[in-house]
Hints:
It is built from nine helices and 15 strands. The model has no long low-confidence stretch (mean pLDDT about 95). The protein has a single domain, classed as Carbon-nitrogen hydrolase (Nitrilase/N-carbamoyl-D-aminoacid amidohydrolase). A seven-stranded mixed β-sheet has the order 13-12-9-8-7-6-15, covered by helices on one side. Strand 4 (about 95-105) and strand 5 form a beta hairpin. It is of the alpha/beta class. It has helices at about 15-30, 50-55, 55-60, 70-80, 155-160, 175-195, 240-250, 255-260, 260-270; strands at about 1-10, 35-40, 80-90, 95-105, 110-115, 130-135, 140-145, 165-170, 195-200, 205, 210, 215-220, 225, 235-240, 275-280. Belongs to the carbon-nitrogen hydrolase superfamily. NIT1/NIT2 family. Pfam families: CN_hydrolase. This is Hydrolase. GO terms for molecular function: hydrolase activity.
Amino acid sequence: MLRIATVQAPVVAGDIPANAATAAALIREAATAGARVVLFAEKFLSGYEPALITADPRRHAVQPADPRLAPIADACRERAVTAVVGAAVRDEAGELRVSALVVGPDGELVTRYDKQYLFKSEAAIYRPGTTGCTLELDGWRLGLGICYDSGFAEHARAAALDGCHAYLVGALFSVGHGHHESRTWFPARALDNTVYTVLSNHIGRTGGWNTCGASAVWGPDGRLLAEAGPDTREIVLADLDPAVLAATRQSEPLLHDFRTGPAFRTGARPAAERLLHRLG
């Protein structure tokens, strides 16, 4: 059994120290409730805020060894928890990325997953990632995505074909159609691949978007397991259960039959390179 927390909380536009402090508090609260992994929304550390980030990337984006991440590292180390935290990142070459920073239970930065599918105007600001990312913890394999990545069935399928049991996505979904998208994509990705899917979304307004909250977890049969409200600070907990996963894959052999079916054999298998990172 692996307990995962997906969290939602207000962020302060462009204020990385304040948002890192919020993240650290949420990590400690989630750990007290038994969580081993804590998932945050897309660009949680700055807010979505493209205008602020492009105007002053040194201030509003983080770097791989950024001292402003220290509160998060301290909380992870103190509670032996892994955090997956959304951030705008200025990489080693000075390029901007939309990333998920993985801080391990020893407080060290394990890896950075960069969003592969950039949404509309993001492509003018950020560079896309080129590899998928799988985390391994206590025998569980967790695939990462960021927001628009989850709109592509192939992205989650690549994680499932890499042996992932769950698909974790930090995102920004807005009220109205964005909420509809999240309630269409995530149960579909879960059932298509018989994996748990986990969403962390923003609440309130960020970067010009009115967000819809409703961070949630779906089981490998696509059914909703736990869900936050639309606009409240919340920690949503769910237990990933190996017996439930095995039973679902027995009754819904979609992933097995894809592996042995004609589409897989004739080259329709997602070919994205993936990197594996073992935690703790």
